[in-house]
Design goal:
By secondary structure, this protein is of the alpha/beta class. It has three domains: about 5-205, Alpha-Beta Complex (Spore Coat Polysaccharide Biosynthesis Protein SpsA, Chain A), CATH 3.90.550; about 215-275; about 285-355. It is built from nine helices and 14 strands. The radius of gyration is 22 Å and the shape is globular. The relative contact order is 0.11.
């Protein structure tokens, strides 16, 4: 198989869940059923290296910055003209690849295709049930992104997604925006005059949530929507989302559905926080578990305190460590030689810099 033979690259971003093996197996089975060559790329952000993945699957071991960062790294490594994204805990229908390719063939003007999301089980509340009986084409820039599709089942023309800058690394899971990275791409695509298609035939299955899990997810999702509206200066999106929240709360009130009212309130609180820019930007402590031994030895017994993180254009995490500032730059593969760093090393997809802290006393 040569690169010219591959029509589709599918990126699966994961923090190291064992379930990614099932998702990968489903994708390979779907490609075989369609009779086409497809590339599966697992973007791995776990501590231990992956095991048990089939031969031929490409694995990219990247620094754990967040979902958008991982997807962008997968986008940069993809070789096919189409690049798709599914979640690492999803089951993929055997007809998924054929349906995606058919949708692009049937709509050659489409910049991207979104598919249906169905519950994987009957144990709880659907994660994000997106269904319908007919394909839909979206062209208007004012289209609410949440009616187009969801990030767990989307495919784009790779050159176009790259041209608009991929996913915003400040949005999505594990980033300050918490969610909304796919909504942001949808908004930018439609604003740029690039139509998007939703098809009922490309189906993935997502595990359901308990009532408590579903309620807990509302605030992050609302926060992501607010962050998208703020970052894109989209007053129309703000008005439509506010109206949908009000309608949801009223529906819960009329139906005496306390759970629905609570979900609407949680979502509204998150939306307001995202809209106002109330975002946690503290550098994550779990990053320190990856610290190279000689960096840790230089810091010694000094306490380490997270400082504000920067997510764009180059993600950077910063920490105060006694007389030092520890800077971690994911995705940088060359040691800087600027004469400032006490320690400078590249390990596991990140540049680690230990620099004297201005005004610090040893």
């Amino acid at each position: 198989m040569t690169r010219d033979d591959v029509r589709l690259t599918v990126v699966v971003a994961t923090l190291g869940l064992a379930r990614v093996e099932r998702t990968v197996d489903d994708l390979l089975r779907s490609a075989a059923d369609a009779g086409v060559a497809a590339e599966v790329l697992v973007v791995w952000q776990g501590q231990a290296p992956p095991a048990g993945l089939p031969g031929g699957v490409r694995v990219l071991d990247v620094f754990p910055v967040g979902l958008s960062y991982a997807r962008n790294r997968g986008l940069a490594e993809a070789t096919a003209p189409l690049v798709g994204f599914v979640d690492d805990d999803e089951a993929v229908d055997v007809g998924w690849v054929a349906a995606v390719l058919h949708a692009f063939d049937e709509h050659p003007y489409a910049a991207g295709v979104f598919g249906a999301v169905a519950p994987l089980d009957t144990d709880g509340i659907p994660y994000c049930e997106v269904s319908g009986e007919a394909a839909r084409v979206f062209r208007r820039p004012s289209t609410p992104p949440w009616v187009v599709g969801t990030g767990g089942n989307m495919v784009f023309r790779r050159p176009l997604l790259s041209a608009i800058g991929g996913f915003d690394v400040a949005l999505g899971a594990a980033a300050p925006g918490r969610a909304g990275e796919e909504s942001d791409v949808i908004v930018r695509m439609l604003r740029g005059g690039h139509p998007l298609v939703w098809t009922p035939d490309a189906v993935v299955f997502h595990p359901t949530k308990t009532s408590a899990e579903h309620l807990a997810s509302r605030r992050p999702y609302g926060h992501g929507a607010g962050a998208v509206a703020r970052r894109r200066r989209d007053a129309g999106l703000t008005a439509r989302y506010t109206a949908s929240l009000g309608q949801s709360w009223l529906t819960g009130l009329r139906g005496r559905d306390r759970q629905r009212r609570r979900e609407a309130v949680r979502t509204a609180a998150g939306f307001l926080g995202g809209l106002l820019g109330v975002e946690r930007s503290e550098s994550p402590r779990p990053v320190l578990a990856r610290m190279p031994e000689h960096v840790a030895a230089t810091i010694g017994g000094e306490s380490i305190r997270p400082l504000p993180a920067r997510y764009e254009p180059q993600p950077e995490f910063r920490y105060a460590a006694g007389p030092f500032t520890l800077r971690v730059l994911p995705g940088v593969d060359a040691v800087r030689a600027d004469g400032i760093a006490v320690v400078s090393t590249v390990e596991r997809d990140a540049l680690w810099l230990l620099e004297p802290r201005t005004g610090a006393r040893r």
